[in-house]
Design a protein that fits this description.
The chain is built from six helices and four strands, in the order βαβααααββα. It has 144 residues and is mainly alpha-helical.
Length: 144
């Protein structure tokens, strides 16, 4: 598992939320945040329920992404052959919604979200919020 530290709070006042009118300053800010981020690696013991939840979310993500992308490609190919049917809007909108909506199960199934962890600001380790006693026991067994 890899957890990325959050960007520092020492941003310029105009870049508080990372969005500006100038795309170049936004890109520079994202680049700056990436330079200061640290990836923390950890081996993670997941219980059966969390492992199943992660697999279901990841499977849903893949299914939504692939079906949305296929629907969009199919609509573009049908449209390219010369069929100008107005009914093509529905497969296009459904494909677009599936494609864009696939981010939801991807985020819900992420390890930091499932485990309730975040990286320390300096990247020295992981902070686990509200750890389960079984998790603490399993982690202690793995580190001994």
């Amino acid at each position: 598992m890899m957890v990325r530290t959050k960007p520092s709070a020492s941003r310029a006042p105009g870049r508080r939320f990372g969005i500006t009118a100038n795309i170049f300053s936004t890109a520079a800010g994202v680049s700056e945040d990436s330079e200061h981020a640290v990836l923390v690696k950890a081996r993670w013991p997941l219980c059966r329920q969390c492992d199943l939840r992660r697999r279901v979310y990841f499977g849903s993500f893949l299914l939504m992404l692939a079906s949305g992308l296929l629907a969009l490609i199919a609509v573009v190919l049908i449209r390219a052959t010369g069929d100008a049917s107005p009914s093509l809007i529905w497969p296009f909108l459904i494909g677009l919604a599936l494609f864009l909506g696939s981010v939801v199960p991807f985020v819900l199934g992420s390890l930091p979200r499932l485990t309730g962890t975040h990286a320390a600001a300096d990247g020295s380790g992981l902070i686990v919020e509200h750890p389960d006693p079984k998790f603490i026991h399993a982690l202690a067994i793995r580190t001994c």
